């Protein structure tokens, strides 16, 4: 479980770690500054973003517009998803009431590609296929204990919000309901 106090590890010779290195630089600047700044470590933020090329938006868009839904990672791949509404409310709390310097802002629950595919199938009737040799990419579960205890944080659950997301994408794309 990833907590706010864990040491973060990156590989500077890996191009895939460049984004994480840039985030760590921002964290370091905030934490050593003499200002009263806060570091917020966000998980994967979701909302009904119709132009996004992120994983979740791409899958939902394909499902509601009846395009093939092909996932290039394994069904067992998993990560944490947090609602934009939870992020906005959480950031306001952090700006006005926080006691610590670093916070994880996440749902605290990993959701697998399989769970997303099954939910999309229930809601749209689409068939989701997985690339047979797709890698399993699993992120550690994120502890939200600090956020939960300090702010009585009860995050939304992606799988519970999928019906609203799918309906929103259907409305945007004019896709019929099945």
Description:
Helix 4 (113-124) packs across helix 6. This protein has one domain (40-173): NAD(P)-binding Rossmann-like Domain (Rossmann fold). By secondary structure, the protein is of the alpha/beta class. It is globular, with a radius of gyration of 18 Å. The strands form three sheets. Strands 2-4-6 form a three-stranded mixed β-sheet. 23% of the residues are buried. The chain starts with 17 loop residues before the first helix and ends in a 5-residue tail after the last helix. The protein has helices spanning 18-32, 55-64, 84-97, 113-124, 145-151, 158-173; strands at 39-42, 44-46, 69-71, 78-83, 102-105, 110-112, 128-130. The mean pLDDT is 93.
